[in-house]
Structure formats: structure tokens, C-alpha cells
Amino acid sequence: MLNKKSVDDINVKGKKVLVRCDFNVPLKDGKITDENRLVAALPTIKKLIADGGKVILCSHLGKPKGEPKPELSLAPVAVRLSELLGQDVTFAADDNVVGDNAKAAVAEMKDGDVVLLQNTRYRAEETKNGEALSKDLASLCDVFVNDAFGTAHRAHCSNVGVTEFVDTAVVGYLMQKEIDFLGNAVNNPERPMVAILGGAKVADKLNVIDNLLEKCDTLIIGGGMAYTFLKAKGYEVGTSLVDDEKIDYCKEMMDKAEKLGKNLYLPVDTTIAKEFPNPIDAEIEVSVVPSDQIPADMMGLDIGTETAEKFADAVKSAKTVVWNGPMGVFENPILAKGTIAVAESLAETEATTIIGGGDSAAAVNQLGFGDKMTHISTGGGASLEFLEGKDLPGVVAANDK
């Protein structure tokens, strides 16, 4: 899965190139509020323009559930892309994605021109990988480039189905970077390798914990999921978030770590409060107690100060660090300390640091450490499945080298 042809391996001069991007950006009153995904797509688009390709872009936006929703149109993306690229991006406004507007716009293209198609999820077949839309998309192009890692774990028309009807299917720079960093971090890391897992639920990370235990030297568990592990050790965890159905699984994982000779670190102290903050960023009274001394009427909401130091120490000696999931309720300034401490330790290390998308990416960017990380994944679910060791349909579909 990791050795795919990329845009550097093909010649697109004079050819029509369909590029699947991830333009699933947040919109407010028709304005884009965060354009990171647009900026991330620029290197691939600029490369194809410079090489004389006729560049046809496609993406989904939100969840229109197979019907046109004007508020989820990609029209604002075409406007902003024109500004970012310094050239016109023609928007083909077809509710059926590949309609008269798209066909006419593509027919008129000169080398280096750019056209953007309407939201691929306006068509119900998109998420079902239906043949009709796959064929429609393929009919527009000679070459297909997938640069949307965020949807790589889904088999949809615009990333998998279309590849069955084109001869050449390669990955873009963004996709290549994800494969290089996430793929190699998991399958061929420079050691010692430390994996840090957080977030609320153990259930979301079952296979990730299992897979990473085999690959890493040290596995650190924080966030809400740590309390299920602490309960599995026989500790009182008060009213903290616990997944009672996964207690035996946590015991198995602790046994597995011991058998494999891996370090499995859990919080040694925890930041507790009477209840979950409401609203989430409300002022809240907290105290820090040892992890085996949480009062029955209190809940753990962040790792404690001693734990933060212990986790930071583990990172110092690492050569590769993969982090997925915050250490506590990072949206609250009082409960963000554990997540900040881990982010700081990653920012200061010489190791390759990889942030596995989703909440951890949001946390690192929000807390101002984004530029200090080696790689921040652009996919939430896709990065998790990569860390689980699964094959991603969107990656598998590209031509092998």
C-alpha cells in the first residue's frame, strides 16, 4: 500500500487531469472560516498547472446526502482558489456534478486551465461508489490524481470508483506525505518509538492500541480512555468516563504489553472536578490527586502534573512520536494543561513528531504548536485506520510503482 505512483511519476502535458481534493472546509454565511485544506492542496494543483495539464478539481463538502443543497455548494471555494492560485478557476455549477456546464468547461480548457466541479455528494451514488457517477467522472479525464487523504478510508466514486475507468491513477503530494509519515512511522519507525493515545473512548481506539503495542517501544495512554484502564487495575475512578464493556480488553492490553516487554504508561495522578464543565470552557474548580485516590463523587478531566512530567520525559528519548487524542478536556483552559504539556514536549524534541489528525490536530493548532510538528495529518478517521494497520481503499486504488 505504501509504494504508489505520484504526480512526479507522470507526464500530464496536454492531458485532462481529474484531481480529488479535500475541500471540505468550514463555511459561515458563505465565507470560508478555515482555509488550511485549500492551502494544503495548492502544491499538487500548481505542479499540474506548471506541467501543462488541464486541471479538473473535485471534492465533497459537508453531508448533502445525495441532493443539491445551495449552502453546501463549492462556489465559494472556486472564488478563494482563484485568489490563491492567481488565476481563474471556472466553477461548473451542475447539480448532477458532471452535466452540461462541466462538459462545456472541460471542452474549452487550454493547458494550465483549472475547472472545479460541484460537490460530489450532491449525487447519491458518491458515497455508495455507484458505477454511473464513477463513469461520469472518468469520462472527463485522461489521468486521475487522488490528493484527499481525509476520505481515503472510504470507497467512494470520486476516490476509488473512478480509478476503474481510467488507465492512470496516482497520488498527489499531500497524499504522498501522509503515506510517507504515517505509513513509515507505523511500519518502519526510527526507534525508540513512542505512541501517545488520548481522547474519550477506548472503543474508538481498540485496534489502534492493539496494533501500536506491537510496533512501538512505549505506549502512553491519557485522556478519558485512561480511566477504563485505571478501573481495570482495580482503582476507584469516581464518576470519570468509563467503558465497562472494555475493562477485560484493557486488562488484556496491559498483559500484552508486559509479555512483549513494552512500556505502557498510564496517568499516575489526575486532575479532578465535581462535574463536567458546562459550557465546556466555563471556570471550574479542580484539584490534583493520585490516580488510585479519586473520590467516589469526583471525575477525572485531565492528567495531573506528575503524569505530564512523566509523559514528557518519555518523549525526550524518543526518535519517533505518534500522537492521537488529547490528554483531557483541552477546550477548557483549566483542563488543557496536560495536553499543553505533551504538545510542548513534542515541540521541543528532535524526534520525528506525527499528529494523527482529528482532535489532536485541532488541539496542537489551537494551542499554537502546529509549526513545531514534523507532520500533522489531514485525516481524522483515515489516520486512525492507518494507525490500526488497515489498508485504505483510496490509497490502494492508486497505481503501484
Structure characteristics:
alpha/beta; 6-stranded parallel sheet; 34% helix; 17% strand; elongated
Main sheet: strand order: 5-6-4-1-7-8
Low-confidence stretches: none
Count of distinct strands:
17
Total helical segments? 14
Largest sheet: 6 strands, parallel
What percent strand? 15-25%
What class do helices, strands and sheet pairing give?
alpha/beta
Mean pLDDT: 95
Using the alpha-carbon principal axes, give the shape: elongated
Helix content: 25-40%
Oligomer: single chain
| Gyration radius, rounded | 23 Å
Termini separation comes to 10 Å
GO molecular function: ADP binding; ATP binding; phosphoglycerate kinase activity
Subunit structure: Monomer.
Binding site for substrate: 22-24, 37, 60-63, 121, 154
Catalytic activity: (2R)-3-phosphoglycerate + ATP = (2R)-3-phospho-glyceroyl phosphate + ADP
